[in-house]
Design brief:
With 224 residues, the protein is an alpha/beta fold. It has two domains: 148 residues, HAD superfamily/HAD-like (Rossmann fold, 3-Layer(aba) Sandwich), CATH 3.40.50; 67 residues. The protein is 47% helix and 12% strand. The protein contains ten helices and six strands. Strands 3-2-1-4-5-6 form a six-stranded parallel beta sheet, with helices on both faces. Strand 4, helix 8 and strand 5 form a beta-alpha-beta unit. The radius of gyration is 17 Å and the shape is globular. GO terms for molecular function: phosphoglycolate phosphatase activity.
């Protein structure tokens, strides 16, 4: 067996289709904090950032104390919606691909997400993924992407060298974080940022379908 390898996934927009839940929670947060209602496009443009940073960017012209109220309102609204409607679904076929990668003896899997530890825990528990991920990095413990802290922490926890790691994400923030950490990056277009945004951020590859993921990972690793 060769060196250990790591496939690190963003969650919202890469593994799970959470856009309805995110938009609804942000609208509720804006309403409760008496802030202007953001457009759907504006809300989706900040997915991938930590919640605090996302709210800061959406409502940059408003006082910090108002932004802080919006953060807490968002958390309540998101969890209320999840309790009512259940966890957001995985994109079609992606969980099968993740499990296929997990069958490889030399491959470890992980997540690096702007969601909270509590939110990630609920995804893991709901879908029975307890043994799937060797490392889970959340916004509770790190600065927001595009800071590479989450990716670097995942590398340290798993002992994988950057040249043997791939970060898969749907936003420019994911790609920028991965590049700053020195790992390969794959942008996926079924999430929240357009292919052009992913390419401009410097993705090593951009893919449109779940079926392309494993061949693309293998191609990148073959170049090391």
């Amino acid at each position: 067996m060769g060196p250990l390898k790591l496939v690190l996934f963003d969650v919202d927009g890469t593994l799970i289709d959470s856009q309805h839940a995110i938009v609804a929670a942000m609208e509720a947060a804006a309403d409760e904090a008496d802030l202007p209602l953001p457009t759907r496009a504006d809300t989706l443009s900040v997915v991938g950032l930590s919640l605090v940073e996302a709210v800061r960017r959406l409502f940059a012209d408003h006082p910090e104390e108002v932004q802080a109220r919006a953060v807490e309102s968002y958390r309540r609204a998101y969890m209320t919606g999840r309790d009512r409607e259940g966890a957001p679904p995985f994109y079609d076929g992606i969980l099968d691909v993740v499990r296929k990668l997990a069958e490889r003896d030399e491959v470890l899997l992980g997540t690096a997400t702007g969601m909270s530890r509590r939110g990630m825990r609920r995804i893991i528990d709901t879908y029975g993924l307890e043994r799937l991920f060797a490392t889970t990095q959340t916004a509770d413990d790190h600065p927001s992407k595009p800071d590479p802290a989450m990716v670097l922490a995942a590398l340290r926890e798993t002992g994988v060298a950057p040249r043997h790691a791939v970060f898969v994400g749907d936003t420019a923030y994911d790609i920028q974080a991965g590049r700053a950490a020195g790992v390969f990056t794959i942008g996926v277009t079924w999430g929240y940022h357009a292919a052009d945004d992913l390419e401009r951020a410097g993705a090593d590859a951009v893919i449109d379908t779940v079926d392309a993921l494993v061949p693309t990972i293998d191609r990148l690793w073959s170049e090391t």
